[in-house]
């Protein structure tokens, strides 16, 4: 059945993938797959979409668990004027309407606008004008059985960062479900005891947990766990969590007994991670026979913009030609190994190899991938792997020239001998040509070098940039 | 560190052919309650190396696990609870994991195993 899906007007790229991944979690399969449709004259960045889902139960589950769905509605009518709306509601079959209008039920009507503001009196007037709908129940504003929404948009073109919509549109529908955004203030970072410089903000962490389809009984792993901000969201949905980090100060010590990764879970009454360990993603400590154990791997890899990646083997790599560094035997206990910078390419290679090896079939790898923006668009080649299918890419612009893209990959094939061999060869190549990869895969310099150099190199791109329309949907 | 983690780890020092299972050196063991989830246990049963788990649980002072186990035992509630306790509730707070081949010790402090290698082990 087709439903009206109204989104919050933020993180535009993340909205549809979230609904799609939750729909799959709640039982939509490839045979009854979901479909999207836009209202007439609407731009794809519009908050209004129509979505086809197999059942009201699924629609409700999806909406209630989502972060970006303002509401999923059974649409009773729509039109470009109140007359058209009335006509359309009257034509909607009675057997769909009457069960929700009975005298023993309570209801409320909410008025919502997009791209304009209407006064309280005006809102009341709109509600009064719906008198042609035979409401028999009592009004209850606090806890109604049924909530109806009257939603209006005006016509405007691409101003104020709003998507272009031509033509006024009014929708009326019955609410099936809506996001519980109250959990965001509960989990917001400023309330959290233990924070690091790159802690993932709550909204994004929950979006990642939804992309990963975290739920009770599933094992979710974060190889760059840091202060645990992503796993907190996964644990909220009941997943069993596990994290590793190369920095022992973060993963073991924190800032005292009630200010560490464990306390971040205790604070919210969530079950603690089943394991935290200090390990290097470049040399993972998993046993050979261990395969396909994680249901999801979710992480924000260190790209070197805010926090640089580190891997084992610092002095050896730097002094490689002179001869490897040996730790004297009497200094072995409590020795703190030096680390070397970890290039983005190598980091992503290791992550994909780990995920290919250790995710269950159908398991999901969800991670951020940084991109340098050129000429208002991004380079669309993302990492690929024979074991994975890329199912969602959601861009979040961080600055004029730099974005991060949340990639969701689903494991579709087994980790074969050939893939393992290719990965081993690549691993050695990275090791031998460490400096070369470090330079090539250095996003830091691309982000922090003066932008002028880029424009000079590109010549005429400067002109085209200025003449571009000012629509900034993705900044939202 | 729980025994589930122990069952997943091995010594990855360069040149070590079989770094599994790591021997456990116990200083402090604590018990931490974990919610009982049958689905999760059944899933993990097929991934766990049973002998290593039984051996490790004995080292930690828990002797209730049988020497051998097969999937048919998952129907027994009693077995599931013992498996749950050994896998998830026994927690090595302080101690070390010892590489079976080289004897190198990976310290476990505050429940966190430090699996990072030294420069000359990479």
TrEMBL record, chain A:
EC number, as in UniProt: 2.1.1.214
Main location: cytoplasm
UniProt domain Ribosomal RNA large subunit methyltransferase K/L-like methyltransferase: residue ranges: 191-313
Limits of the tRNA (guanine(10)-N(2))-methyltransferase TRMT11 N-terminal domain: 2-181
Location within or outside the cell: Cytoplasm
Keyword Cytoplasm included in the entry's annotation: yes
CC terms in the record's Gene Ontology section: cytoplasm; tRNA methyltransferase complex
Highest taxon above the source species: Eukaryota
Top EC class, one word: transferase
Transmembrane annotation, as ranges: none
GO MF annotations, alphabetized: methyltransferase activity; tRNA (guanine(10)-N2)-methyltransferase activity; tRNA binding
Biological process annotations from GO: methylation; tRNA processing
Keywords: Cytoplasm, Methyltransferase, RNA-binding, S-adenosyl-L-methionine, Transferase, tRNA processing, tRNA-binding
Family of the protein in this entry: Belongs to the class I-like SAM-binding methyltransferase superfamily. TRM11 methyltransferase family.
Protein name in UniProt: tRNA (guanine(10)-N(2))-methyltransferase
Source species: Capsicum annuum
Classification of source organism: Eukaryota, Viridiplantae, Streptophyta, Embryophyta, Tracheophyta
From TrEMBL, chain B:
Pfam families: Trm112p
GO CC field: cytoplasm; nucleus; tRNA (m2G10) methyltransferase complex
GO terms for MF: methyltransferase activity; protein heterodimerization activity; tRNA methyltransferase activator activity
A biological process from GO: methylation
InterPro entries (alphabetical): Trm112, Trm112-like
Assembly and oligomerization: Interacts with TRM9.
Family according to the record: Belongs to the TRM112 family.
Protein name per the record: Multifunctional methyltransferase subunit-like protein
Source organism: Capsicum annuum (Capsicum pepper)
């Amino acid at each position: 059945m087709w439903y009206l899906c109204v989104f919050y007007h933020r993180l535009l790229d993340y909205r549809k993938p979230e609904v799609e991944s939750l729909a799959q979690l709640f039982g939509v399969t490839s045979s009854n797959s979901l479909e999207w449709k836009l209202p007439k004259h609407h731009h794809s960045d519009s908050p209004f979409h129509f979505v086809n889902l197999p059942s009201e139960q699924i629609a409700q589950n999806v909406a209630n668990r989502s972060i970006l769905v303002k509401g999923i509605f059974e649409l009773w009518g729509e039109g470009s004027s109140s007359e058209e709306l009335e006509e359309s509601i009257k034509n909607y079959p009675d057997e769909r309407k009457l069960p929700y209008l009975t005298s023993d039920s309570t209801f409320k009507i909410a008025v919502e606008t997009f791209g304009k503001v209407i006064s309280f009196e005006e809102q009341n007037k709109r509600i009064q004008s719906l008198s042609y709908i035979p409401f028999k129940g009592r009004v209850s504003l606090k806890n109604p059985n049924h909530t109806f929404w009257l939603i209006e948009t005006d016509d405007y073109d691409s101003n104020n960062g709003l998507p272009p919509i031509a033509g006024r549109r009014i929708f009326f529908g019955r609410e099936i479900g809506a996001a519980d955004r109250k959990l965001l203030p509960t989990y917001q970072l400023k309330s959290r005891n233990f924070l690091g410089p790159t802690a993932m903000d709550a909204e994004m962490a929950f979006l990642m947990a939804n992309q990963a389809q975290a739920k009770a009984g599933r094992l979710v792993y974060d190889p760059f766990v840091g202060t645990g901000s992503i796993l907190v969201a996964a644990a909220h949905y009941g997943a069993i969590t596990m994290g590793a980090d190369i920095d022992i100060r973060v993963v073991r010590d924190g800032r005292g007994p009630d200010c560490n990764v464990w306390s971040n879970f205790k604070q919210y009454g969530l079950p603690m991670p089943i394991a935290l360990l200090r390990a290097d993603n470049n040399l993972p400590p998993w046993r050979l026979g261990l395969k396909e154990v994680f249901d999801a791997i979710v992480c924000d890899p260190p790209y070197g913009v805010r926090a640089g990646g580190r891997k084992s083997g610092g002095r050896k790599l730097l002094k490689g030609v002179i001869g490897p560094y040996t730790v004297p035997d009497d200094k072995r206990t409590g020795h703190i190994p030096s680390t070397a910078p970890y290039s983005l390419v190598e980091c992503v290679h290791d992550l994909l190899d780990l995920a290919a090896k250790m995710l269950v079939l159908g398991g999901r790898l969800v991670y951020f991938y940084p991109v340098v923006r050129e000429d208002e668009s991004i380079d669309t080649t993302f990492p690929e792997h024979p074991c994975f299918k890329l199912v969602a890419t959601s861009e979040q612009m961080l600055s004029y020239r730099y974005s991060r893209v949340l990639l969701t990959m689903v494991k579709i094939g087994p980790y074969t001998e050939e893939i393992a061999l290719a990965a081993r060869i690549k691993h050695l190549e990275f090791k031998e040509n460490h400096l070369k990869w470090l330079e090539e895969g250095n996003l830091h310099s691309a982000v922090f070098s003066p932008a002028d150099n880029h424009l000079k190199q590109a010549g005429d791109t400067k002109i085209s940039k200025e003449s571009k329309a000012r629509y900034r949907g993705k900044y939202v | 560190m729980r025994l589930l983690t122990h069952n997943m780890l091995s010594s990855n020092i360069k040149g070590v052919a079989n770094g599994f299972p790591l021997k456990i050196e116990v200083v402090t063991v604590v018990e931490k309650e974990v919610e009982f989830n049958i689905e999760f246990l059944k899933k993990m049963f097929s991934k766990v190396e049973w002998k290593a788990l039984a051996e490790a649980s004995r080292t930690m002072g828990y002797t209730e696990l049988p020497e051998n186990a097969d999937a048919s035992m998952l129907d027994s509630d009693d077995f599931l609870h013992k498996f749950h306790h050994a896998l998830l509730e026994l927690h090595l707070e302080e101690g070390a994991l010892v590489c079976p081949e080289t004897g190198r010790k990976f310290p476990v402090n505050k429940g966190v195993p430090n699996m990072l290698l030294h420069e000359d082990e990479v």
